[in-house]
Design goal:
By secondary structure, this protein is α+β, with helices and mostly antiparallel strands. It contains four helices and twelve strands; from the N terminus they run E-E-H-E-E-E-E-E-H-E-H-H-E-E-E-E. Strands 1, 2, 3, 4, 5, 6, 7, 8, 9, 10, 11 and 12 form a twelve-stranded mixed β-sheet that branches.
């Protein structure tokens, strides 16, 4: 059940909230990974458009390909995405050839923000940024990246002391949640629900917010705690004129929060 409430992000004096800021432009120099892909039918919605979970898959696959390209996959194989920002500026429709460019927009020794811009040959444009944490799989804790990797990623950003700051912090609303069944195919090698599985739910509920998706729009998804297969997931939604907010909760414990709003 969706209740009606206007969602307004808190803002400090003389400071624009990150939710309202445009993503940084493509750098003019430095290390930018550039790859072409074809839009597959598996990622199409009923109107032949690239679905939001399909965008998330392209982002994730580009990350792996980028590590391979940098010869860093063996030394940096395990990452967790803490936040994903997806700006759908001009929707991409099938059939299409895609160009993906990926570069670092901020870094610290244990995590980084990675931009991915997706252009299509039929005029589509999607801008994204992810907050990626390098993980030690044995201890399940953040792990330092190698100096060589740090130096390469630093060539496209002056932000070398990146800090985590949560964007979506509203508490779980009183609105009744909708049960969202999980499948075994939703689980990754950490034993957690995959990034793209969250986007399945976002796609499901965003279908009711055509007033927000009719023009350029922004999705933000922040992951707080993992969800494991077998847990009972409820998605709570609050929709208003400015935004649609979603909470992913297990027995009232918020595991992730998402928001849909107009793009900056």
């Amino acid at each position: 059940m969706m209740s009606q409430l206007v969602s307004t992000p808190p803002m400090a004096a003389n400071e624009m909230h990150p939710l309202l800021r445009p993503l940084p432009a493509v750098p003019t120099s430095g290390h930018i990974f550039d790859i072409d892909r074809r839009l597959g039918t598996v990622d199409m919605d009923e109107n032949q458009g690239l679905r939001i979970d399909g965008i998330a898959r392209h982002i994730q696959d580009a990350g792996v390909d980028h590590l391979v390209h940098c010869e860093a996959l063996d030394t940096h194989p395990h990452w967790i995405v803490r936040r994903t920002v997806i700006d759908v500026i001009r929707p991409i429709a099938w059939p299409a050839q895609l160009r993906l460019r990926r570069w670092c927009s901020g870094i610290s020794p244990r995590w980084c923000t990675m931009r991915v811009r997706i252009d299509s040959d039929n005029g589509g444009l999607i801008d994204t940024e992810g907050f990626w944490i390098h993980m030690n799989k044995e201890t399940m804790s953040p792990s330092r990246v190698q100096d060589k990797f740090f130096e390469l990623m630093s060539t496209t950003t002056d932000e070398h002391r990146l800090r985590w700051k949560q964007w979506l912090g509203e508490p779980l609303p009183h609105a009744t949640g909708a049960r969202f069944p999980l499948r075994r195919t939703d689980v990754d090698h950490f034993g957690h629900v995959t990034n793209t599985a969250y986007w399945h739910a976002v796609h499901e509920f965003a279908a009711e917010a055509e007033d927000l998706t009719g023009g350029p729009h922004r999705f933000v998804l922040e992951y707080n705690k993992p969800i494991r297969y077998g847990e009972q997931l409820d998605v709570h939604t609050v929709g208003g004129q400015d935004a649609l907010d979603l909470w992913f909760a297990v027995d009232g414990d918020v595991r992730a929060v998402a928001q849909l709003r107009a793009a900056p």
